[in-house]
Protein 1
Amino acid sequence: MEQKKEYKIDESLKGKVNLIVVEKSKRQLSIYHDNELLKTYKISLGQNPVGHKQFEGDNKTPEGVYFIDGKNPKSKYFLNLGISYPNEKDKEYAAKYNKSAGGDIKIHGLPNGFSMAKPLFDIYGDWTHGCIAVSNEDMAELYEIIDIGTKIEIKP
């Protein structure tokens, strides 16, 4: 696995981020401290990006308010931050249709071994199965500065 130490981290952001806002239509993730914008990152989404994730396998990225619920340094993608999808409302909706809401939604970098694909990041557009992807450089920084429990608001 690639070492996150290869990347420059803005240490001044540590401990400051108390809100993540994802704007799917703008393909951007912004981090805030008490409503003050700290930084914005370019993202890729699920292959079917319009609308809220409803079922496992729909390749949509969820919309709504969630929380960062884990950090995985040994992900099959370059690091990841877990998102608390699905919530009870998501599970209830899927259950009405006798389907699974899915899960395992993350903010992550590129697949391990593909860091050289960064120039292709722009070309491929939305390529995840519902996760939020960023460059490995951005993921290294987010991984270091985002705490478990941080609120994430995912907007259309």
Note: The longest helix spans residues 136-145.
Protein 2
Amino acid sequence: MKFCNQYMSQKNLGVLTSGGDCPGLNAVLRAIVCSSDQRGFKIIGFHDGFEGLLAPDAFTVLTTTNTSGIMQVGGTILGTTNRGHFTIKAEAGKKVLVPEHVVKKASQICHDLRLDGLIVIGGDGSMTIALQLYQAGFPVIGVPKTIDNDLEATSMTFGFDSAVACATDALDRLHTTAASHKRVMILQVMGRHAGWIALWSGLAGGADMILIPEIPFHLEKITEEIKRRSAQGNRSTIIVVAEGARAQQGKQFSKGTMHGESRLGGIGEMLCHEIERRTGQETRVCILGHLQRGGAPTTLDRILGTRFGVKAVELVDQKKFGTMVSYHDGSVLDVPIAHAIHRMKTIPPDHQMIEDARAIGISFGA
């Protein structure tokens, strides 16, 4: 075990970032380190998500010195992964457990490091793993992270605001080129099962149409709306579509990868082809992809990430293990991890933001 003896007699706290990266992760890490420094905690940062728990030297001791200046940096200084021994990908609503021998090996390394707590920063899949580890005896605290904003137990997660800002900026840019060429422009954004990024950016970016997983669309309604707008003299139509959107009676579009798994993709290209074929109007698609995950976090995500980090350390100090940091009505609270993964937060069809969008003429293709 390559670990300095000086840390073996001190109170140690582990932290890892798991799943997809997003802006704000480093803000959380910095806050955990700074807050822990005030309490006398030593922070052990595990590399590459949960995989770092399986190697005896896959960690870095984080200090206020080596985390200085990271808050405004995107990504995560610890690295992350959604592959490996802890991969539990499954269809929405289904649970897959990490093999028991993997949990035991990770537990032994944490025991050897004498961890007094482990903070897991991640989304729904990561929280599912965190719950399993807690049930196996790990002193775990969860911090919610997802740009999709689809965790039910918190009203907002860091990374979401940055993703929306990125999509809104893209829509701002697409307006001018769409009008110049009299085109239909389609912006495909992330959102597997929840359309929060599409809805928020569509409202902020002046989209004419928003297509989300929660409201299956009709191609006929989409083409009718485009023709109507053209007849009224509109030079262009801007559509923002979540990657998980689908037609009525249709399935989500996906394609295989070199790793043999299915990945969402193709809805933008399908819409582009069908709109052009049905309307005769020149149509282009822009797939925003991982640009939504990169770059510096917004002010809101820096603040939210900082508050989440502080709360996580507080929960460790209070020994409230098995809980996850949660944000509601301006306050940072905590909820049981089991409640956090109980169900996904999707957009109700009668949500006030949808009604507001319809009130200003935005179509949902339904």
Note: The first strand starts at residue 12 and ends at 17.
